[in-house]
Amino acid sequence: MHQENLSMKMSKQMPLNALRVFEAVARLNSFTKAGEELGMTQTAVSYQIKLLEENIGEPLFLRRPRQITLTDTGGRLAPKVSQGFTILADALASARDDLNQMLHIDSTATFAQQWLTRYLGAFQLKHPNIAVRLTTSPIIIDFLRDQADVAIRWGKGDWPGLSAHRIMRLDFTPMLSPKLAQSIGGIHEPADLLKLSIISATDPWWKQWFAAAGVENPGLERYLANELGTQSFDAGMAIAGQGVAILNPQHFQDEVETGRLYQPFELTCNDGRDYWLVYPENRRHVSKIRAFRNWILSEFPRVDG
């Protein structure tokens, strides 16, 4: 009898159905869309929200014609409810002990091309039960909306709600084709680079590097203001002899060793942003995420600030 009373008390205190409906409405910003996703009528959705508001004692949404917005109370509650359902989903997945898992990695394009695709095979040999889906995007993904498990991003590692592990310094320095360097008799001092075409001249890395190299007025504004979007594209132009690119030398060691790229100066700079492995803090114990985290951190030496 005591156990039955305790269960009834917990059920009343924890209205899971209403919380699930609230999570959907808050995420989709619509009673109608939430109902469609959950297979409920709009009336049923409104009823569940009303029950939850009565349970809490505060309104969760401001209802206006054709528009709803979260109240302050609703805004504070929504991310915690979403986090709670994520934890429950992960717990169920772990309980099922699914032998075949899919790890979704979202990465910057350059890191994916220059590192991940070259070494992911080693991860899968170590974890043959984990399939990998790799996508690339130039923006910081929203783990609440996107399906990725982990991401490789560049920045300062200060993303709220995410666990972040720095994996590679994002230093930069000019690099070019050896043949292009020979075409002007070699690169002997930093100013010699300005005799050639500068790829992505509007990239702020150029000004920082030339300042560090003692070239105060490089006149970068005279070059075409191209923006190619990724280091891989800049490097491709440099390898083809079309100019000088400013790149992270760690990404292009193979190209240097095979003579396709040349780093004329040892001077490298860093603007405080590096490569990080990130994932939601509340998913740090998920087995596939833990396996990938341990593997990739073992592949890189300790990165000091």
UniProtKB/TrEMBL annotation:
Question: What name does the UniProt record give this protein?
Answer: LysR family transcriptional regulator
Q: Which organism is it from?
A: Rhizobium herbae
Could you tell me which residue ranges the HTH lysR-type domain spans? 14-71
Family the UniProt entry places it in: Belongs to the LysR transcriptional regulatory family.
Q: Does the keyword RNA-binding apply?
A: no
Q: Which residues form a coiled coil?
A: none
- Which InterPro entries does the record match to this protein? LysR-type_TF_proteobact-type, LysR_HTH_N, LysR_subst-bd, WH-like_DNA-bd_sf, WH_DNA-bd_sf
Key words, A-Z? DNA-binding, Transcription, Transcription regulation
